[in-house]
Amino acid sequence: MKLNRFWVGIVVVFLAGLAFTKIADNEFYFYAIYAVLQLMVMGIAWNILGGFTGYVNFGAGGFFAAGAYTTVFLHKALDGPPLLVAVVVAPIVCGLIGLGIGYLTLRLRGVYFAIATLAVAIILETLVINWEYVGGAGGYYFLIPEEIPFFDSYVEWLFTVILVITLFAIVVSRYLNSSRIGQGLAAIRDDELAAECMGVPTLKLKLISTTVMGALMGMAGAPFPYFITFVEPVSTFSLLIAVNAIAVPMIGGTMTWVGPVVGAIVLGSIQEIVTVSISSELNMLIVGVVLVGFITLAPQGITGVYRDFRDKRRRRNE
Amino acid sequence: MSEEILSVKDLTKRFGGFTALDAVNVSLSGRERLGLIGPNGSGKTTLINCISGALVNEQGSVIFRGQEVTGLKASKRARLGIIRSFQIPRPFRSMSIIENLLIPMEYAASERKEHGQLRDQAMEFLELVGLNDRADENSSNLTQIDLRRLELARALSAKPSLLLSDESMAGLSSSEVDEILDILLALNERGVAVIMIEHIMRAVMKFSERIVVLDAGKKIADGSPDEIVNNPDVERAYLGE
Amino acid sequence: MFELFVNAVVAGVLLGGFYAAVALGLSIVFGRLDIVNIAHPAFVIIGSYVAFIMNERYMFDPILSGLIFLPVFFLLGVGMYRFYYVCFERTGQESLSGLAYFFGIMFIIEVLLILYYGVDYRNVQAPYIGETLFLGFLGLPYRMLVPFITATILTGLVYLYLSKTFLGRAILAVSQDRLALQLMGADPVKVKQWAFGIGIATAAVAGALLIIIQPIEPSVGRLYIGRVFAIVILGGMGSISGTFFAALIIGIAESLVATFIGPSWAPAVAFGLLLVTLAVRPQGLFGRAG
After folding, report:
1. Does C119 score more than 60 pLDDT?
2. Contacts with A296 from chain C: Cβ below 8 Å
3. Does C289 touch chain B if contact means CB atoms closer than 8 Å?
4. CB distance C9 to C256 below 8 Å
5. Number of structural domains found in chain B
6. pLDDT at A1 over 80
């Protein structure tokens, strides 16, 4: 039964991740895989609103940074609470932001929503730059604890956290994909007016979609300050994060939860290699070109191309 | 059943300075077959839009089965049983033919669920329109007549009490028109009231028990097909002064 | 205090006029053709860099460079539209992919500029930059006044073109009724091509004006995204006069905020006004009804 296979897979991956922290001795692996998993969560989140529902979000950087700065705020206000507190609070904050943007603009065409997401990202960035409490433009330093139970180093703990977040995102995405809600979202994406006239409560579903997307992106951002140890607005609200969030599902495929997983592995690996071996600017150029390339040539992404290939082969054999 | 299912009272709809519908009154009893005709631009589709909820009227009210639905969202009205089909078919292109039907079954008809698998029930509707052997085909590459069939099947699977059919026969051949007509009549047999917008006169005459004529946003006639055919105002509206 | 206020308002007017020049192209492309070219400010920045190079190497006046390169930008616009049409409009996939496409283009332009010119600020030299015209207590810096005048002339020319010439009126018509346009003998695709070309051509001049007003570096374009969309939407989607007045409003609002609250808050003003407009009156202040 497919359902059981999925859950078995989830548990296996989690256990493998834990085992990996014990076996691997080079910390670089954890940093590299963390980056890929972070991409994966952002891509999965973006795809819930973008691929499943058909509404483009340009402000992924804003949600991500809101999650990160929620962590910063909690760290300062509660004098260094455990990471998991932030991981629970950040999605609530960011989910509300998503709900707010949605409520303001989802009654209008998708274009206006897309522009509004960009607007919110810049407004949040401006707010943070002017907010000395979380470091303002100068930034905020994070001191990570020396000792952490069960793990050899803090980054192994971060790796485990982001792994669990990723698996959680996959579960949520898969549930939305295959449930009644997912059917409604697909109907909205295909033809919103027809969906509304067929009884789909489009505004309600769009708001759910936006809120879930915001919450997941906030979750992805929550551990980031611990990972990067120095948080400042420009790099945290970076446009590269927004572009990556779109590129991952565009490359991997937008129709199901599998697409962003594939896309994150592909794009993440490319980025790691290019950044390390050539330069980070060239990396940005490659991401941009790959994104535009896939949009124009293969909008269904890798999984879409694979599905077409498989269908054609099946038809030929009939 | 002769209780009133729909009552449109003094409905007025404006677009900026342009009055598309001016104090229109229409009523319909359950199971009635109403034809809605009028020259181009007379407001027929606008009226359908206001009844189904795709547009909101400025004045007047729409009462469905005794309940005021003016101001309710289209999805809410669909769940109550008001379903419309579109002039230009709007299938859910990423889905197969049968998946298209599952949407209204899951949503519009959610309170009218029957026992048994949804897929089996959907197949019944597909049989009614003759698409059952292509149930799993993708819906994006169908011919015009098949798209119309799908559009109607989808409307059926929403289990409506009132179907608003907007020019579902435009551009079809004579035999195809008869096919669609048969489907609509079968639907009516099952207890669904139908308002049909159509320009194909023989279809309107054959189908309708009563005809309402609109011209420039106003209702100018309301009666049996024979009365309408012999009405000088109607003739003038179509042929001009 | 009063003098400060008046100076801020006047500075806002000058700034707003310039903003109108930046938003002009988008007013045509988004307001009339319904193409969400979110990369428009990136093209403006290209115009700024062109003016910079011409100024540094050949001592050309920036506005002159802008005018010289008008036809080049026009052709660039035509090319971009053709590509967009072939990939997206023809297949009917505008919504999701088209938006993401222009977003990707904007990103690529910014990265290419960073690769070639780095992140240092660039500016131009011209005899009028640095001088100020004083009218009583009003200070009108020439580096703001000259762009304002140029922008106003440009807006006026575009307005006249769209309302008086056949091709201009065809552009206004193409968004409303393709079929009627075809029956009149104009090919909608060619008309849209022409319109997109004009839109990008204005970016050449707007870019030159930008680098006169402020030093530029590749990411400056992003701050303008909110401004131009706010202006186009507030101004009523395609109305040239509406765009101009909305630009003035945004300019004045930003100037007042920068003067009385703080300059680091200025970027949020336009975006904030944009959100408010979308929430409250999406057809803008001067919008077409319906």
Report:
1. yes
2. 83, 87, 97, 101
3. yes
4. yes
5. 1
6. no
What does the block give as tokens for B94?
Answer: 């990423």
Question: What is the per-residue pLDDT across A177-188, written as a single tens digit (0 to 9) for each?
Answer: 989 999 999 999
Q: Which two tokens stand for residue A130?
A: 């002017």
- Residue A283 maps to a domain: no
Task: Provide the number of structural domains found in chain A.
Answer: 1
The alpha-carbon gap from A315 to the nearest alpha carbon of chain B, in Å, equals: 12
A60 within 8 A of A242, measured Cβ to Cβ = yes
More confident residue, B89 or C139: B89
Give pLDDT < 50 ranges for chain B.
1, 241
* B16 within a domain of the structure (yes/no): yes
Burial C54-84 (b: 16+ CB within 10 A, else e): bbeeeebbbbebbeebbeebbebbbebbeeb
- Spatial neighbors of B129 by CB under 8 A, at least 6 apart, are B149, B150, B152, B153, B156, B183
User: Is position A282 within any domain?
Assistant: no
Residue B227 belongs to a domain with what CATH number?
A: 3.40.50.300
Instruction: Give domain status of residue B107, yes or no.
Output: no
What interface predicted TM-score (ipTM) does this complex get? 0.89
pLDDT tens for A192-242 read 999 999 999 999 999 999 999 999 999 999 999 999 889 989 888 888 899
Structural domain includes residue B169: yes
Is A251 inside any structural domain? no
Q: pLDDT (tens digit, 9 = 90+) per residue, A260-276?
A: 999 999 999 998 888 88
Structural domain boundaries, residue B168: 4-91+160-239
Q: Is residue B15 domain-resident?
A: yes
Which chains does chain A touch, 3 or more C-beta pairs < 8 A? Answer: B, C
Cβ atoms within 10 A of the Cβ of B174, count? 11
The answer to whether A201 contacts chain B (CB < 8 Å) is yes
Is residue A126 in some structural domain?
yes
Of the candidates A186, A199, A202, which has its C-beta nearest B158's C-beta? A199
Which residues pair with residue B9 across a beta bridge?
B61
Q: Nearest chain A residue to C110 by CA: give it.
A: A285
Name residues 188-227 of chain C within 8 A of B (Cβ).
none
Provide the pLDDT for residue C95.
Answer: 62
